[in-house]
Amino acid sequence: MLNRNRHVNKNQQKELRGKSAPPYLDSRICLGKYKVFQIDKMIAGGGFGQIYRATNLDNNEEVAVKVEKSVGNDAQRIILESKVLEEMLGVPHFPRMFYVGPYKGFNFIVMQMLGLNLGDIRKALPTRKISIHSAVRLGIQIVEGLELLHSKGWIHRDLKPTNCCVGLDDKRKQVFIVDFGMSRRFKNDDGSHRDARFYCGFRGTTRYCSYKMHDRREQGPVDDLWCLYYSLAELIEGQLPWRDVESLEELAQIKKVCKHEMIFPSMPTKFASFDRNLRRLKQTSTPDYQKFQTILASCVKFVDTNAEFEWDS
Ligand SMILES: Nc1ncnc2c1ncn2[C@@H]1O[C@H](COP(=O)(O)OP(=O)(O)O)[C@@H](O)[C@H]1O
Ligand SMILES: [Mg+2]
C-alpha cells in the first residue's frame, strides 16, 4: 500500500481515486439511520477516500463525512479508521466521530469538521514555509497526540503534513491528526508488544516514512516520530532534501546518511538532539515524549501558545 501514485500498478491506475474521482455522493442526500447528516459538497479527496462538508440537521452543526468504497482491496481501511476513532473519542488532537455506517456501495464516517491540513496551509503561505515558532507549537501538540494514540496501543504509520489539520474557530490553535487507514495495533490486549514480523509490506508515504520502513521492518511508536521529524522539516524549510529523488533505494540511503543540518538548515543546532534521540530508540521502545517536546521548545525563546498563527492573522 504505497501511498504514491507513481508506484501503483497499471490496473489500479485506471481507477480514479480521491480528488480525481467523480464525487461518490450527490449533494443534498441524507445519511445515517435517521437521515440527519445532509451532504453539502466534496471538500477534499485524499489517496483513497473523499471528504464532504455536511450538516447535522438535528442541531445544524457543520460536520465532515469521509467516504470510501465498500468493495475492493482497500475496503477495510475505513473500518479500521472507525475503530481507531472510536478508541480516541474525546481525546485531544483527534476529530470526534459522530456516526459510522454504510451507504449503497460505500462506507462513511461522520466526524468533527476541521480546518485546513498543514500541507495546504504551507503551500498557501507566500514563503511556502511555516515559521519556526508555529512549527514548534504544532510539533509539540503532535507529539502529545502521538503519545495519546500510542498509549491506546495504536501507531499511525502515515503521519505527514496533509494528515494533520488545524481546528476551526475556537480550536484554530489546535492540531488534529487524521487518516487512520494505515494504522496498526502494536500492543496485545495485555499491553505487551506484538511480535515483530520478519518482513512487512510497505505502509506509509515514501517521502516521510522512517528509513527503517524502506527495509520493510516492523514499525513502532518511534517511526511515527520520524514521520513527524521529516514533516516538520518540510513545513519549516519548504522542502525535504530528497524531494526529487525517484528511486526508493536511493531515498533509503539518503535518509540513512543525511545529516541533520542538511534536513534542517534553518533550525538551531540544538535541534539535532531530536534526531540523535530518535536514532537511539528501538521498535519496541516507549519514547520519552516529553523530552522531544522539550527539544522542540528549546529551539525558540518562548513558546507562545496564545499567539495567532501567521495564516490566521
Ligand atoms: N474531519 C475533517 N474535516 C475537514 N477536513 C478533513 C477532515 N478529515 C480529513 N480532511 C481533509 O481531507 C483530506 C483527505 O482526508 P484523509 O482522511 O487524509 O483521506 P485519505 O485517506 O484519502 O488521505 C485531508 O488531507 C484533509 O485535508
Ligand atoms: Mg490522508
From TrEMBL:
Domain of life of the organism encoding this protein: Eukaryota
Any GO molecular function: protein kinase activity
Pfam families: Pkinase
PROSITE patterns: PROTEIN_KINASE_DOM
SUPFAM superfamilies per record: Protein kinase-like (PK-like)
Stretches the record annotates as Disordered: 1-20
Alphabetical list of SMART domains matching this protein: S_TKc
Family annotation (Gene3D superfamilies): Transferase(Phosphotransferase) domain 1 (1.10.510.10)
Domain Protein kinase positions: 37-313
Protein name from the UniProt record: Protein kinase domain-containing protein
